[in-house]
Write a structure and sequence with these properties.
This protein is an alpha/beta fold. The protein is built from eleven helices and 18 strands. The protein has two domains: 152 residues, Beta Barrel (Lyase, Ornithine Decarboxylase, Chain A, domain 1); 245 residues, Alanine racemase (TIM Barrel, Alpha-Beta Barrel). The strands form two sheets. Strands 1, 11, 12, 13, 14, 15, 16, 17 and 18 form a nine-stranded mixed beta sheet that branches. Strands 2-3-4-5-6-8-9-10 form an eight-stranded parallel beta barrel, surrounded by five helices. Helix 2 packs parallel to helix 3, helix 5 crosses helix 6 and helix 8 packs parallel to helix 9. The chain starts with 9 loop residues before the first helix and ends in a 17-residue tail after the last strand. The structure holds pyridoxal-5'-phosphate. Pyridoxal-5'-phosphate binds next to helix 10.
């Protein structure tokens, strides 16, 4: 047994590679369930809703699993809303985040009976009010407040600082809540924040919550009583040597701050639910040892898994069948024509052409950020469930790459 592959096993991965080809994303249903239960169990007995952040991995089968557990969803576009509905999720359990909601997206969400709009600006309040009035509806809203705390994470995935584009500045929140209360087609039901992603400390969450709760209390004093508080997502996972807090500790710290307030707690975890439930399976195409560096060229690339190229993110790379040979330091790279196209730098591995590799912790922001760069079809996806391999997305077909394109007329 190769413990480094857990929860996957070598024989199954070989079978998957043979049957579905590589690169291929492989997810484990039991890990997805366990990750969801960790949040749900920690909140047992308290009013809560776990809204899976769809952008982490919008695969229909994954959405279907979470919907089956009773999850709600956090979405950022009409496409994500349609996906959730297609997978059996309920509109009433969806919160709609994002700084740039278009009119057609708002109208569609209202028609579907969306649970809440997480409003990110003053003009968005007016826009939702107007569109809801046109439909003869009242739109449930929450204001996404920017608590101005440093999440201590990568600048590209930090969202809760003044200088970020997200949310309403903390200082403007009271004024905008009063405005929302005065707009007849809005129903103010909550408050939310989301301070960043891949956080490995509890303190920034607690600091943000402190600031949000001061607002909640000040609003209550004015007769604006909120039903829910949504602390967003952002809890990190272990990719390398990070030590994120266990979900129970994170939840306990939040509960302690909430005290006796009768607020429903919403959380929007993405990465923490799916990140460690998936791997990207790839095969070594060529070994290209050099004077300065040794390159292992694999058949997955930055278009399949963008995180290393985008954030210099580190993913463990594990041979499916470890070789009994002296390891060498490899640059594990893809075939894409970019120097930034790497999956891992300086990895001590014993490799041969044709070897299968598992790129670990690829369940979040892997497939969802993949592209067709270099006209590469997107990878296949399979899920392991009850000992069976279930295909959940076929490899994109080459002709589909230009299906929507047209040649110029003569
Ligand atoms: C991306 C995002 C999330 C999920 O973040 P994770 O770090 O994956 O948990 C939650 N809420 C909002 C508003 C987001 O933009």
């Amino acid at each position: 047994m190769n413990a480094a592959l857990l929860p996957f096993d070598a024989a199954t991965l070989v079978m998957i590679a043979d049957q579905y080809g590589t690169p291929c994303y492989v997810y484990d249903a039991e890990t997805l369930a366990r990750n969801y239960r960790a949040f749900d169990d920690a909140l047992h007995g308290k009013p809560h809703q776990i809204c899976y952040a769809v952008k982490a991995n919008p695969s229909l089968a994954i959405l279907q699993l979470f919907a089956g557990f009773g999850a709600g969803f956090d979405i950022v576009s009409m496409g994500e809303l349609q996906r959730v509905l297609a997978a059996g999720g309920k509109a009433s359990q969806i919160v709609f985040s994002g700084v740039g909601k278009r009119e057609d997206e708002i109208v569609f969400a209202l028609q579907q009976g969306i649970g809440c709009f997480n409003v990110e600006s003053e003009p968005e309040l007016y826009r939702i009010n107007r569109l809801a009035a046109d439909l003869g509806l009242r739109a449930p809203i929450s204001l996404r407040v920017n608590p101005d705390v440093d999440a201590g994470t990568h600048p590209y995935i930090s969202t809760g600082l003044k200088e970020n584009k997200f949310g309403i500045p903390h200082e403007d929140a009271l004024r905008l809540y009063r405005l929302a209360a005065s707009l007849p087609s809005l129903e103010t039901i909550g408050i939310d924040c989301h301070i960043g992603s891949q956080l490995t400390e509890i303190t920034p969450f607690v600091d943000a919550l402190d600031r949000i709760l001061r607002l909640v209390d000040a609003l209550a004093d004015e007769g604006i009583v909120l039903r829910h508080l949504d602390l967003g997502g952002g809890l990190g996972i272990r990719y390398h040597e990070e030590t994120p807090p266990p979900v129970v500790n994170y939840v306990a710290a939040i509960q302690q701050k909430l005290g006796q307030r009768s607020l429903t707690l919403l959380l929007e975890p993405g990465r923490a639910l799916v990140g460690n439930a998936g791997i990207l399976l790839t095969r070594v195409e060529y070994l290209k040892p050099g004077l300065e560096k040794n390159f292992a060229i694999v058949d997955a690339a930055m278009n399949d898994l963008m995180r290393p190229a985008l954030y210099e993110a580190w993913h463990a790379i594990v041979p499916v069948h470890p070789r009994d040979a002296v390891p060498v330091v490899w640059q594990v790279v893809g075939p894409v024509c970019e120097t930034g196209d790497f999956l891992g730098h300086d990895r001590q591995l014993a490799l041969a052409e044709g070897d299968l590799l598992a790129i670990k912790s690829a369940g979040a922001y892997g497939m969802s950020m993949s592209s067709n760069y270099n006209s590469r079809p997107r990878a296949a996806e399979v899920m392991l469930r009850d000992g069976e391999v279930v295909p959940i997305r076929q490899r994109e077909q080459i002709h589909a790459l230009w299906r929507d394109e047209r040649l110029l007329p003569d």
